[in-house]
Design a protein that fits this description.
The structure holds two protein chains of two kinds. Chain A has helices spanning 9-31, 39-51, 60-94, 107-120, 126-151, 155-180, 187-195, 203-222, 224-230, 234-239, 244-266, 272-284, 288-312, 320-338. Chain A is mainly α. Chain A has a single domain (89-338), classed as ABC transporter involved in vitamin B12 uptake, BtuC. Chain B has two domains: 7-171, Nitrogenase molybdenum iron protein domain (Rossmann fold, 3-Layer(aba) Sandwich), CATH 3.40.50; 188-330, Nitrogenase molybdenum iron protein domain (Rossmann fold), CATH 3.40.50.1980. Chain B contains 13 helices and 15 strands. In chain B, the strands form five sheets. Chain B has a five-stranded parallel β-sheet with strand order 5-4-3-8-9, sandwiched between helices. In chain B, strands 12-10-14-15 form a four-stranded parallel β-sheet. In chain B, strands 1-2 form a two-stranded antiparallel sheet. Classes of the chains: A mainly alpha, B alpha/beta.
């Protein structure tokens, strides 16, 4: 019988420590930016907000920067970081493959292509960008899984290869789209989207993103135990009374949706879905009940830190994808070397 | 003054280096040596009746020099460009060779057997110029990123085709506009100077740098470009940075999509001076945008200077000046070509 593993004191301590760390990073992040806001003014802004008092006229500019530019951006970094990291963890569990992530399975590429298609369409609508991003992201993951099943040997590696095929396919479609786009009217917005950035985030975006991400996090934590069972394989899952097809489909749709909504809002931000689950697994072990919340916290901390660096280091913004790749690639390389021969790969 | 001297020195050097006479007919042109804007020595063997351009500023320069009938290949985007089509309707039938962003089809280019190829300096432009030279196809690299270098580009192309007569006309008309602006603004008190921010077609938070034509459009119009300290191509900035710069005016690229302009309605930006005072403009015109490296970009400076410092230009009829300029360059006024100077931004 498979038992639910309760949170140990150590696991609770880890969760608490990471939550505190996220709070510290968040406070540091909202205190930093291209516009200097004095600590005392920040305190006044927060107190006034909580007490419902109006902002003094001399703090109006600082209020706008703090509450309408900086805070929503930091909140979005937390949501996107957590969402992408959890999606990666879910994919890795569902496909029983530590090498898969929304990037590697082509989901991000599909979402990006869908978003780009929405951008060049004559309707010029944000909703269309979101819908097309989700549709093509879902199509991409379906194609990867279907292709891997058709090949049907060495499932772990084949899924990665199938993902690369689909990724290349959607990247090629994106190239076709870019080729036929007007280089002065349409191409610049596609390029901006592909690079990934949180610079255009508003409260409206946060309000759209937050419910889906929070529901997704709760859903995945609630289904963490079933993810454990699914990661044992279909036969074991069926013998334990779980419908693997139903749950797999549900979880793929939910995690793809989280990726799609992230891509449609902030563009493509790579590496988070691949490395964060591994870091979380190293801290919390393989049990998804404990690992999923830690993955969410680590993802949030990672992207929030990366975005803070991206927006504060220089006058011009550094594309956040550069920072996630520069840190993610060596970390993943280190993890691969560290876990060689452990059955991890 | 120093800039202007530099332009005419460049033109003079080109004339000295060349051995062809201005009055000679095409059939009598002798081989001539040029130095292009990448510093490459290029020998033009004789007549240049077949020209290929590989990016839009080059095509616009060729059109301004009244060399349209010699175009046998153009960058693909120019085939859809409204101004190019209005000036030279036959451009839609000219072969498309690709574009700078997505690449040039080298075989198509070679198959056209051109007498002259005009290339860009970025990306693979220099490499392609050398490959063409190895095949015996003369190729010049132009770098039209400032008013001065646009004039040098015009001079270079004119020399390359052995046609010098149109050059003074184009250059003179550009200089007339620039002199007009500089003369009117020479007594502008420093405290009256405004600051400006240019948003590129990539989005509200993508801006120009100190190396780009948009920077010069601003400075010529007596406006301090807030992003002038940045270097390179278009740079992305954070909304906070825009807030910190707090420009008096904002100019949006003609090509910016409506989904981007709606971001100006964001409450967070409501205290940015340009937005709060409703001084956000879209760069004219509806045919070929002036916020773009071409001889037309001097009009952007005039439009902006008149818009920001109206008292200094109260006697200038912008529509008339713009029409005259288009007529001088392309043989048709903006009105005749169906162009509009709409500058309103909806958000």
């Amino acid at each position: 019988m498979v038992r639910r593993r309760p949170f140990s004191i150590k696991a609770k301590g880890t969760l608490l420590a990471l939550t505190l760390l996220l709070a510290i990073v968040f406070l540091a992040s909202v205190s930093m930016g291209r516009v200097f806001i004095h600590g005392a003014d920040l305190f006044t802004l927060v107190v006034n907000f909580i007490s419902g008092n109006g902002t003094p006229l001399d703090l109006l500019s600082q209020e706008l920067v703090f509450w309408w530019i900086r805070v929503p951006r930091c909140v979005m970094a937390i949501l996107v970081g957590a969402g992408l990291a959890i999606s990666g963890a879910v994919y890795q569990a569902l496909f029983r493959n530590p090498l898969v992530s929304p990037d590697i399975l082509g989901v991000s590429a599909g979402c990006t292509f869908g978003a780009a298609l929405g951008l060049v369409s004559p309707f010029d609508s944000f909703y269309l960008v979101h819908v097309m991003s989700f549709g093509f992201g879902l199509a991409a993951v379906s194609m990867s899984v279907a292709l891997a099943r058709l090949i049907g040997v060495k499932a772990v590696m084949i899924l990665v290869l199938a993902g690369m095929v689909v990724l290349s396919f959607f990247n090629a479609l994106l190239m076709v789209l870019k080729y036929f786009s007007d280089p002065y009217e349409q191409l610049p917005s596609i390029i901006f989207w592909v690079m990934g950035s949180l610079s255009r985030v508003t409260w409206d975006n946060v309000l759209v993103m937050a419910p889906f991400t929070l529901v997704g996090i709760v859903l995945f934590i609630a289904l963490g135990f079933r993810l454990n069972i699914l990661s044992l394989g279909d036969i074991q899952a069926q013998s334990l009374g779980l419908s693997p097809v139903l749950f797999r489909r549900l979880l793929i749709v939910a995690s793809s949706f989280m990726v799609a909504i992230s891509v449609a809002t902030c563009g493509q931000i790579a590496w988070i879905g691949l490395i964060i689950p591994h870091m979380a697994r190293a801290i919390a072990g393989p049990g998804h009940e404990r690992m999923i919340p830690i993955t969410a916290l680590l993802g949030a901390i990672f992207l929030l830190t990366a975005d803070t660096i991206a927006r504060t280091l220089s006058t011009a913004e550094i594309p956040v994808g550069i920072i996630t790749a520069l840190t993610g690639a060596p970390v993943f390389g280190y993890l691969m070397i560290k876990n060689r021969g452990s059955g991890w790969l | 003054m120093a800039q202007k001297t530099g332009v005419w020195m460049s033109i003079f050097m080109l004339i000295i280096l060349g051995s062809g006479g201005a009055s000679m007919g095409q059939e009598h042109l002798k081989p001539r040596m040029l130095i292009d804007q990448a510093g490459r020595r290029v020998e033009i063997p004789g007549v240049t009746n077949k020209i290929v351009t590989t990016f839009k500023p080059a095509t616009l320069c060729v059109l301004a020099l009244r060399l349209a009938p010699r175009l046998i290949g153009v960058d693909t985007s120019s085939k859809q460009d409204k101004l190019s089509k209005a000036v030279f309707p036959g451009i839609t039938r000219v072969a498309g060779v690709g574009n700078k962003s997505m690449g040039i089809n080298f075989e198509t280019l070679v198959s056209l057997e051109p007498d002259l190829v005009i290339l860009y300096s970025q990306k693979d432009g220099l490499q392609m110029a050398d490959r063409l030279a190895a095949l015996g196809i003369p190729a010049i690299v132009i770098l039209p990123e400032t008013f001065e270098t646009i004039q040098t580009s015009l001079a270079l192309i004119a020399r390359a085709v052995g046609e010098e007569t149109p050059l003074p006309a184009v250059a003179r008309h550009m200089d007339l506009i620039l002199d007009l602006i500089r003369n009117r603004l020479k007594n502008l008190p420093p405290k009256e100077r405004k600051t400006g921010y240019f948003a590129s077609s990539r989005g509200i938070f993508s801006t120009t740098t100190g190396n780009m034509i948009q920077h010069e459009i601003f400075t010529t119009a007596g406006i301090d470009n807030v992003s002038g300290s940045l270097a390179g191509y278009f740079q992305d900035i954070s909304p906070e940075q825009l807030f910190r710069w707090n420009p008096d005016i904002m100019v949006l690229s003609r090509h910016m999509k409506r989904t981007e302009t709606t971001r100006l309605a964001n409450k967070a930006l409501s205290q940015v001076s340009a937005i709060s005072t409703d001084r956000v403009y879209r760069c004219p015109s509806s045919l070929s945008p002036w916020d773009f490296p071409s001889p037309l970009s001097v009009l952007a400076s005039l439009w902006l200077a008149k818009r920001v410092y109206p008292t200094y230009f109260s006697d200038i009829d912008l529509a008339d000046t713009v029409n005259d300029f288009h007529k001088a360059l392309f043989g048709k006024t903006l009105d005749q070509m169906g162009g509009l100077m709409d500058e309103a931004v909806q958000w």
